[in-house]
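Journal club prep — side note

Before the paper discussion, L.F. wants everyone to see what a predicted structure for a comparable chain looks like in C-alpha cell form. Sequence:
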Amino acid sequence: MAQNTGANNINAKTALADIEGIGARLVERLNAFELRSAGDVVRHFPMRHERKLAERSILQTQLQVADEQAVIRIRGSVATVRVRRGRATMVEATLEDDSSSARLVWFNAGWMRDKIHPGDTGVAEGRAKVRNGFLELGNPRWIPDHVASDTLAQRAESAAATTSATSNAPISAPTNATTSATTSAPISATTNSPTIPRINPPLLDVAQDQLRAIYPASENLLSSEIESVVAKVLEPVCATIEDPLPIAFRQERGLIALADAYRLYHQARDEDDVAAARKRLAFDELFLLQLGVMMRRAQLRSRTRALPLKLEPKINAHIRSRIPFVLTPEQDRVIGEIVADMGQPFAMNRLLQGDVGSGKTAVAVYAMLLAVAHGFQAALVAPTELLAEQHYAVLGAMLKGSQVRIAFITGSNTSAERRERVAGLATGKFDIAIGTHALLEGGVAFRNLAVAVIDEQHRFGVKQRAAIRQKGQGELPVVPHTLVMTATPIPRTLAITLYGDLDTSVLRGAPPGRTRIITRVVAPEKAPEVYSYLRTRLERGEQAYVVVPAVEESDLGLKDVANHLRYLQEGPWKGLKLAGLHGAMARDERDATMNAFRAGTVQALVATIVIEVGVDVSNASVMVVEHADRFGLAQLHQLRGRVGRGSTQSLCVFLGESTTDDGKQRLEAIGNTDDGFVIAETDLRIRGPGEVFGSRQSGLPPFQIANLATDGELLRVAREDAHAWIEKDPELGAPGVATLKNKLWLTYGKALGLGDVG
C-alpha cells in the first residue's frame, strides 16, 4: 500500500495516488483522463476562464446581466417546482428573494426532480439571460443550504477531493503566505472514507467578482474536481520549478517567472493575471521550438558539406533554352535566391511556396538542370504516382532530344524495371530521378546526387527530408541541396513553425496567359441548372472535372464516382463522353483514362480528390465540386487550381451549403477570393493548425497555450531571440542554461533530430 505524501513532499513526479486527501475513486478517474502525477495536473491547463460574479440579489442580477459568459450567483427560496415530461424531462423551478424572482430550468435532467423541492433554500449558480422580463438560468448548479440526511447516502460517490477545508478558502495572490498554508493543509483521514458523501464540488469565496478556471474534463471527471486537485498540488509543485530562462532575459521581454505563470493561469484573480501567465507560457512553447529548429539549422550548416554549383552565363542560357516559355520576373527572382544558395559549400534547405499555377515546376527544373550541367544528379520526389507521372511527362518533353537521361521510379515499377533503374542511378547512367516515396527507400542509392526537390512538402515530413539528404552520400561525402515546394500557401506563423529550419521563397502571381477563374457557390438544389448550362460549354469543345467525395456508395448519402457518373450519363450529360477516375483504380486503367482526357476523347472526368494535385490539362476549363461543404478550404482551392490553365475563361462551381458556422465561413471565403495566401490565413483561423495540416503528418508541435492564428507577434519575437541565442551559443553549452538545454532535448531532441544535443 502506497504511503500518502503530505504537501511539503509533493513534486511534479509524485503520483496522485500517493497524495494525502485524494480519494482512490477520484484518483482512478483522474488516471483514466491521463492525469497520473502532480505534474500532469499542473500542466493540465484551463481551456478558458469564466467570470464568476459576486452574489447579488435577483433584481440586481437581472439589471446587470450583460455578459452571458459570466457565471452569476443568486440566493433564495424555492417557491414552485414543475416537471414537464415529453421526449426529455424538463424541470422548472421558481426561486424568490426579497427583491424579485427567477426561473431555473434544467433540460433533459429528470434526476433534478428529486433534488429540489418547494420550501428549499439555497444558491443557484450558472449562466443567465433575461427572457420575457424574467431572469432565467439554464441548467444551473443548485447548492441547497441543508441536505436531508436520508439523501446523503444516495449522493455518495467519492468524497475525497471535494470536501477539503482548503477548497472553500478564497484564492489569494500566488505569493501570499496564506495561500501556501491553506493549499498545503492536509485533509483529515476521515475524508477518505467511501461512506462520506460528495454533496457538491467546492465553492470559491464569492464576496467579490472572480475568475474561475474551466478545465478540459469529461462526463466522468468534472472541471471542479480537477480544480480541487490543482489547489492541493499547485503550490508544492511550483516551489520545485526551475526556470529555464535567465532573469535578465525575462525582464527585457516583460515575462513573469515560470512558476508564477503556472500559479496565475490556474488561479487567476483577474484578466491581467491570465494575460501575464498566458504570455509567458505561450512564449516558452514558441521559443523552445524555434530554439530547436535554429539549432538544427546551425548543425546542418556546420556539420555537412554540399557541392557548390556556380551559375555561369553559358549554363544559364542552355537551361533557359530548354524551358519552353519566358520566365516571369517572379520566377527569375526566386531562381536568383536558389542559385545563391546552391553556390555555397553548405547545403541549401529552402521552401518554395507558390499558389496554384504560379510556375513552381519551372523553378524546380532550373535547379535540377543546374546540377546536371555540372555533371551531377538530381531527384524529384512527389507524393502520388499521378503527380510523379505529370512531372515525368513535363520534364521529358522539355529535355526531348537532349542527352539528359531520366529514371522514373514508383511502387508500380515491375521488379525488372526497378532493378534496372536503381542500378542505373548508382552507376550514374541516369542524370535525373523522378518518383514517389519509392525513391526514399533504403535500396535506392545515387552516384552523386547534388540537388533534391520534394514536391507538395506538406505531404511529407522531417524524416523524409532527412532520408533524401542521405541519398547524397554516394561516391562523394556530401548532402544534396534540397528544395521543398508546396502549392498549398502556408500562413506565415505556420510556415515558421513547421519549416523554421528552412529558408523561404514565395512565388506570387501566375505566368502570362493564365485567365482568372470565375467562382460560384451554388445551393445543391440548383445542380440541374448548373449541369444544363455546363453541357453547352462541353458541346463547344471544353472539358470538365466533376469532383465527388466518395469512391463507393455509402450510408452517408454522399455522391460517389460510379453512381454520379451514371446519373450524368443517363441524365443531363447524356451522349457526352464521360469517364470515372479514383485512386483505387488499377494503374493501367487510371493511366488510360487520364491519357484519354488529355487527348480530348473524354470530355468530362467524374473523380475524387485524386485530381487535387498535379493534373494539368490546359483545355479543362470547368470544375464542379459536389458536397463542397465537406471539403477543407485549402482543398477546395487546390481543386479549383486544376482549371484556368489555358486561355479559355474558366469556371468553378461549388455545390454545397452548410448548417455549421465553420462550413459557412469556408464557402464564403472560397467564393470571395482566389488568393491562396488569404485563403490559408482564413483556414488557419477557422480550423487551427492541427486540422489544416494534420498534426501527425506535419509534425506539428504539441502547443497547449500558443495559438498560431493569434500569436504571430509573439512568434516573431521568439524566433528572433532563438536565432540570436544560437548564434552566440550553437550547442547551448554556456553556464546557466543546462535546464533550458535539457528541456529542449526532452521536448524536441528526437523530433528534430538533434542527436548531438545533450
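L.F.'s comment for the group: Confidence is low (pLDDT under 50) at residues 147-206, 691-699. Keep this in mind when we get to the figures.
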